[in-house]
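Support case: user asked for a sample of complex input and structure output to validate their parser. Sending the pair below.
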Amino acid sequence: MTEAQLTPPARDYLRELDQALAGVDATTAAELRDGIAESLQGLDDAAARAHITELGDPAFVAASARGALADVAAVGPTPLPRTGTSSLAYLLSALAVFALAGFVIPVIGWIGGVVMLWISPIWRRGEKWAATLIPLGLFAAVIGVGVSAALGAAASMPRNFATYTDVSNPLLPGGYDILGITITAGWIVLPLTASGVAVWLLIRGLMRTGRLEPASTAFATAAALVFALGGFVLPVIGWFAGIAMVCASGVWRRWQKVVAVIVPVAAAAAAIVASAVIAAQAPGIVDDPTGSFQVPNPLLNQPLLLQWNVPLALWPVLPAAAALVAAWLLIEIQRGRRAHRARFRA
Amino acid sequence: MTPDIGAQLRKGVVEHCILGLLAREPMYGWQLAEELTGPGLIASIGTLYPVLSRLRERGVVATYEQASDTGPVRKYYRLTDAGRQELDAFRAQWRPFTRAVGNMIDGSTR
């Protein structure tokens, strides 16, 4: 298309249209602009002016394009072409790599999955950012907490021991400890978190490709059940799956979803804090079971994770709290349905 | 808040009106816009192109370029086989649908 065939009023109109179309989806904007430009081509000044009057104000044209695009979004997901990077096979393999490759090749496997997510049109940008940043954030947090805990342990060393010895302090976080923490974070925390996020991405992906109806009561009920029982069957990951389904469902309100996420986490955190407080107050030396002599408290020889009862907090405290929340969520579904029916009768 | 009933109705049928127009003959953008703005099915040519993009993504409409008699090369939209099938399916539902709605809202006495 040659702009040379356009008269000055036509060119002015297109320039204004370009400005008005800022922010409109690029493909649609280009097609709209080309369509209007071709309708202005070959017209003389007077004819172009008349046609411009028919076309309407560029701001109005752009606004109606925006409105029509918003309608598309409101109507629901545009069915994606089910080929290439938006096919079901791609969706499943990208999520498998994202969730599981990190267990096989720590970190690098997960990065491969992130790349596969980013090049697919199935997920929105916000979802891609969440998939990238949530596991990365937890990974960084675990490294940070682990290293500072190791440093704290070294700082609480008896001073005389630390000062009067020539050998390097065995409790200082050496390369070995840092490596251990990094391996734990990279090999366990990262892929574990990614697995939870992957369930959420799976649901979003299936919704977006028109394979799942999230507003249905059936889906919400299934979500509540996975939320209640998932954590018992598959510690943490099962509960992640429940969260993902609850968050994807269109039945509950946002605050209810927030409560559903926070309550089990708070229960688990409270259990950990309580155990940590008890551990901190535990005496360093206790009586031997026979009562005849004293020994260092065996509790304090355990790794911090055991002293703080972290495994217990993750199973069964977390799933038990989730089960209670799930019961509430199920009641809310019923209440929502009754309210819906009442509205129809009114 | 009462939704604009006309807008809701237009949104529901505009895609198939475009398919119906293209079933007669391939048309270029402005031609389609004139046909649709006349009876008020779209607000302006701006509304048309997002709908056309959607129809093309769905594979019911395809485009080709052709020089017009007056000179400029124009992009024409035509119906694909899938589009023809979709239009047939819509036609099959539309008449019984309008009849049923008409019976209900015209307040006929039994």
